[in-house]
Design a protein that fits this description.
Number of helices: 11
Shape: globular
Structural class: alpha/beta
Number of strands: 14
CATH architecture of the largest domain: 3-Layer(aba) Sandwich
CATH topology of the largest domain: Aldehyde Dehydrogenase, Chain A, domain 1
Order of helices and strands: EEEHEEHHHHEEEHEHEHEHEEHEH
Strand order of the largest sheet: 10-9-8-11-12
CATH superfamily of the largest domain: Aldehyde Dehydrogenase, Chain A, domain 1
Radius of gyration: 23 Å
CATH class of the largest domain: Alpha Beta
Distance between the termini: 37 Å
Length: 346
């Protein structure tokens, strides 16, 4: 990755990329650029990403805290992690705390709607709340794999063991879905830490969840305070700054296809593994005891629109191919009709 710190940009200047090509500094970019800002050059496309110094500082500080917290997590007992999930769920269950979060969410939804954006997944409904609580308690009860032997191969006189270990700091960039703060907090289960950057539409809600539920849960459980950090910025460049940080062990992005692809390019240039779902990505497995009606309903509901959790791959148990494949194809046709189109095969 090429990240350049400059005092100023000159319109018309050429910026080399990809070995044989060059991008051009536009007058608009030169006008916006200030001393101390960063210019990130994507080697795949030649896109010039302007990261203001303030946004870089926010992301760097968040990763600083998460990186320090990760080093401390090795000494944190599993019972403390259990307690974090338990307390986080309890705080969300507290009606007085939820009312504060719900009010922040109402304001977020009003702003988004006034700007003409969809609020379908932004509104923190009671069902979303209960799903968040249930998910956190599921993480609590799951148990850890830290230090567990995954596989052992015994040879005469010596043994090889594959042992599960945490990744490190996981960076998340999500669109405006408040429930991601509880979903992605699951990385703590295996001793990782996380930095979140959420879409601007849900930033107020995320700040309220962090302040009134997540951060207090970390404190009460005795976990490092930076184990989960939020980059508190509505600027897209804050996401670029986060994914450009080489201290991330994994970069996860969810959102629109073009924005996710760009974030993936930033992370890959930094040498970070990525998990990118912009327009699809969900997997479904129909096991040997799958109920045909529930399977059909799940397939159809997962194809209602093209977003980041849209069904992308479906695996059907070999023993059920004869009866579930026709069910699957019928569900595809039904999903197509509901969207005013038809299913196609390639």
């Amino acid at each position: 990755m090429t990240i350049v710190t400059l005092d100023r940009l000159i319109p018309g200047s050429l910026v080399p990329f990809g070995g044989t090509r060059a991008a051009v500094i536009t007058p608009e970019l030169a006008e916006r650029f200030r001393k101390g800002d960063h210019l990130l050059v994507l080697q795949e496309t030649g896109n010039l990403l302007h990261i203001p110094a303030a946004q870089m500082a926010l992301a760097t500080t968040a990763v600083d805290r998460a990186h320090a917290a990760f080093r401390a997590m090795s000494a944190v007992p599993d019972q403390a992690i259990d307690r974090f999930f338990d307390r986080f769920a309890a705080f969300l269950e507290d009606s007085s705390i939820w009312s504060v979060i719900a009010e922040a969410n109402r304001l977020d939804a009003e702003r988004a709607q006034s700007s003409g954006r969809s609020i379908t997944r932004l509104v923190a409904t009671e069902r979303m709340r209960q799903d968040m609580i249930a998910g956190l308690r599921a993480w609590r009860d799951l148990g850890t794999t830290r230090g567990c032997v995954v596989e052992r191969i015994v040879h005469p006189g010596w043994t090889i063991e594959q042992v599960a270990a945490p990744l490190g700091v996981v960076g998340f960039v999500f669109e405006g879905r408040p429930n991601v703060l509880s979903d992605a907090a699951g990385v703590l289960r295996t001793g990782n830490t996380a930095v979140f950057r959420i879409g601007s539409d849900a930033l107020g809600t995320a700040q309220a969840i962090m302040r009134h539920a997540l951060a207090p849960a970390l404190l009460e459980a005795g976990l490092p305070p930076g184990a989960i950090s939020l980059v508190e910025s509505p600027e897209r460049s804050a996401g670029w700054a986060l994914f450009a940080d080489r201290r991330l062990s994994l970069a996860v992005a969810r959102g629109s296809g073009q924005a996710v692809a760009q974030l993936g390019s930033v992370a890959r240039q930094a040498g970070t593994a990525v998990s990118l779902h912009g327009t699809g990505g969900a997997w479904m497995v129909a096991d040997h005891d799958a109920d045909p009606e529930r399977f059909a309903a799940a397939v159809e509901a997962s194809l209602d629109r093209k977003v980041c959790n849209t069904l992308n791959v479906c695996c059907i148990h070999r023993a059920r191919v004869s009866d579930l494949v026709p069910v699957f194809l019928a569900a595809l046709e039904a999903a197509g009709r509901s969207r005013g189109t038809a299913a196609s095969s390639t």
